[in-house]
Amino acid sequence: MKEKGRLFIISGPSGCGKDTLLKTYFDRHEDVEFSVSTITRPKRDKSDDEKYSFVTVGAFKELIEQNRLLEYAEYCGNFYGTPKEPIEKWISEGKDVLVEVETVGAEKIKAEMPEAISIFILPPSVELLKKRLSGRATETPEQLEKRLDKAIEEMKKSVFYDYIVVNDSLEQAAEAFERIILSDRQKTERNINFINEVLKNA
Ligand code: 5GP
Question: Which residues line ligand 1 (CB under 6 A)?
Fold first, then answer.
């Protein structure tokens, strides 16, 4: 019998570099599924298409009513949600799954699935975070300020996560991230069926 897969929850403030980190991971590995979130925020740029499916607020509310979201949260005036069905399917097939959510969503998933592993991506400093955020130029100064306040509020929640990855050097952060996933796969609880199989004819 195949072991169940693991859900990895990734959070980190806007500007911490988590998109680049995740892209680096997925460029190197094909053994983890990525959960595409359903969101109501207007599209920012083309790279959004890989991460998100865009819906109206009405359509989002229907998903909530139909209980089709594992979690959802409002973030800076828009809704973000994690579709439930694909995650349940992948986990039951033994696949590891990565969801990228803000801290409220992470808390909701942990409450529902305590076995999920949570990882917080921290920038090395608030100064660097400010620099990265203002370098984006896709938001108004008010939106930027709102995101910075939110980022600091979120960083205070990092203490509740299972792991911290500091994104200072991309290469080191990518390695740390990879090590967390690899060592989790060696956990005894993820290998019980294999142990039983080995001992079957002992
Ligand atoms: P952004 O608008 O910058 O793409 O994302 C804003 C925040 O929403 C980020 O912290 C991102 O991790 C989070 N986010 C993305 N997808 C989801 C989701 O499905 N659920 C929740 N709760 N947060 C999400």
Answer: 14, 37, 41, 71, 73, 75, 80-82, 100-102, 104-105
